[in-house]
């Protein structure tokens, strides 16, 4: 009984107050509605083969729909999202690249629900002139 009195019931009023404050914070956070917002995010082609370059009409942005708490989405800007397309296995000719929601980098608490276009066609041609220095 001494254990209960010393560790559990000691400062019971403060413990109940802390529990009430924690509950109010949790209730406020979970009561906030979810929302969806669309962003235009630039496509970033990474690890391009040094001897190849992109040719033709290739989309430069993708439309990304993001779902999350409305307070988070109000603070977000397109720079908070990134869409990197890895071109290291690119070969000369036309390649179809699939774009999935998992490829989009988002802040914690945001979820990508849609990406448009879902695929793009990229034509790689030999680079004219000296190749850029290797990194």
Give an overview of the whole structure.
The protein is α+β, with helices and mostly antiparallel strands and 135 residues long. It folds into two domains: 1-31; 33-126, RNA Polymerase Alpha Subunit, Chain A, domain 2, CATH 2.170.120. The protein contains three helices and eight strands, in the order H-H-E-E-E-H-E-E-E-E-E. The protein has helices at residues 2-8, 12-31, 70-75; strands at residues 34-46, 52-55, 61-69, 82-86, 93-98, 104-105, 111-116, 119-126. The strands form two sheets. A five-stranded mixed sheet has the order 6-4-1-3-7. Strands 2-8-5 form a three-stranded antiparallel sheet, with no helix packed on it. The relative contact order is 0.20.
CATH architect. name of the largest domain? Beta Complex
Q: C-alpha Rg, in Å?
A: 25 Å
% residues in beta strands: 35-45%
Derived from helix and strand composition plus strand pairing, the structural class reads alpha+beta
State the low-pLDDT regions, or none. Answer: none
Instruction: Quickly count the domains.
Output: 2
Shape, please? elongated
Characterize the main sheet: 5 strands, mixed
Order of helices and strands: HHEEEHEEEEE
Can you tag this structure with a few keywords?
single chain, 135 residues, alpha+beta, RNA Polymerase Alpha Subunit, Chain A, domain 2, 5-stranded mixed beta sheet, 3-stranded antiparallel beta sheet, 8 strands
How are the secondary structure elements laid out?
Layout: H1 2-8, H2 12-31, E1 34-46, E2 52-55, E3 61-69, H3 70-75, E4 82-86, E5 93-98, E6 104-105, E7 111-116, E8 119-126
């Amino acid at each position: 009984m001494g254990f209960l009195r010393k560790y559990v019931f000691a400062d019971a009023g403060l413990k109940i107050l802390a529990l009430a404050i924690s509950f109010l914070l949790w209730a406020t956070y979970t009561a906030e509605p979810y929302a969806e917002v669309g962003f235009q995010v630039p496509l970033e082609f990474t690890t391009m083969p040094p001897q190849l370059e992109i040719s033709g009409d290739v989309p430069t942005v993708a439309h990304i729909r993001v779902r999350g708490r409305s307070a988070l989405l109000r603070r977000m800007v397109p720079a908070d999202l990134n869409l990197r397309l890895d071109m290291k296995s690119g070969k000369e000719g036309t390649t179809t690249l699939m774009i999935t929601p998992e490829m989009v980098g988002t802040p914690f608490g945001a979820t990508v629900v849609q990406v448009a276009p879902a695929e793009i066609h990229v034509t790689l041609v030999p680079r004219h002139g000296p190749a850029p220095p290797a990194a």
